[in-house]
Amino acid sequence: MKKNLQKVLILALGLTTTIVSAQDVNVDSRTRIDNTDSEARTATQRLTVGASWSGSDWSVNASSDLNYDLGTAVTTNSVYEAYVSTDLMGFATLTAGRQDLSFGSGALISSNSWGMDRYTNDGLSLTANLGGFDLNVGTMGGLDMDNQYINASGSFAGADVNVLMLNNANDQSAHGYDLSYAMGDFSLAVSMNSDFDDNEMTSYGVSYNVFENMSASYTMTSYEGAFQMDNTAMNGGWTNGVLGYQAAGSEVASIGISYDLGGIMLGYTMHTVTAEDGTEAESSSMTLNYALTDNATIGYAKLGGTDTENTWITLSIRP
């Protein structure tokens, strides 16, 4: 226990020294309670502290995660993000270091904001805007330049388009195509994805603004093969706050509703998973977020199905 306390104090001292000189600071606190076994509940706490500095054509960003298991009193800490960016003569931005990346639908690369284990990428990235296209080209895997990605996105005639291509050191490729289009109160979305082993995940969705502050949605997702990508929140399922990938041949029907009450946001989604043999299973997610101030938000979420139930309590503070 003394060693754990010593680690916390050392980390806190380092963060305090860093924060004093930083231009912008943000704090995110998340507590997760696993209610699957009512006789043996577990709880973990994650505290993220980030800071940034910037000049006329450069910026530096750094953040760290401190994880604490309320049951075992085990404490771990790790660098979440650490990168430097510089402007290239107004044409593009070059970034080097550890980044949390998310592109398109998130089926191939996405942030893991809920889970205790972060998914980040060490490498270089170049971002630019070319004739209405936002282009992001980069490498992953540290000094291994064989892992590459290119992402292009833009809006055309009311449609939003996102294309993501990935290559790894084994000469395998993965790709994702996302298209969404708004027509009055209706919005349509399509996402087609293929992983490194040519397995496919396809989603079709529609959302409708019932009235000014309320919307409803329906999404159908199908799997051909055992679709799997490591660097996504979906890879961890409910431990990362999402339903997650499903087995080969499965179909998932998701019905959701969200309501904005100004400072309060309510959301509920029901998922029905139909396996290849026709059997069905249901799970759901319920969220509540409340804006305490202009820069502080507290949230509650209940996630899971028959065999899993996680409760999340979050507090985010930003400058």
Descriptive notes:
The protein has 319 residues and is mostly beta strands. The protein has a single domain (82-317), classed as Beta Barrel (Porin), CATH 2.40.160.10. Helix content is 6%, strand content 60%. It contains one helix and 18 strands. It has one helix at residues 2-21; strands at residues 24-34, 42-54, 58-69, 75-88, 92-99, 121-130, 133-140, 147-156, 159-167, 173-183, 186-194, 200-211, 214-224, 251-260, 264-274, 280-293, 296-305, 309-317. It has an 18-stranded antiparallel barrel.
Q: What are the main properties of this structure?
A:
globular, mainly beta, Porin, 319 residues
Secondary-structure map:
Elements: H1 2-21, E1 24-34, E2 42-54, E3 58-69, E4 75-88, E5 92-99, E6 121-130, E7 133-140, E8 147-156, E9 159-167, E10 173-183, E11 186-194, E12 200-211, E13 214-224, E14 251-260, E15 264-274, E16 280-293, E17 296-305, E18 309-317
Antiparallel strand pairs: 1-2, 1-18, 2-3, 3-4, 4-5, 5-6, 6-7, 7-8, 8-9, 9-10, 10-11, 11-12, 12-13, 13-14, 14-15, 15-16, 16-17, 17-18
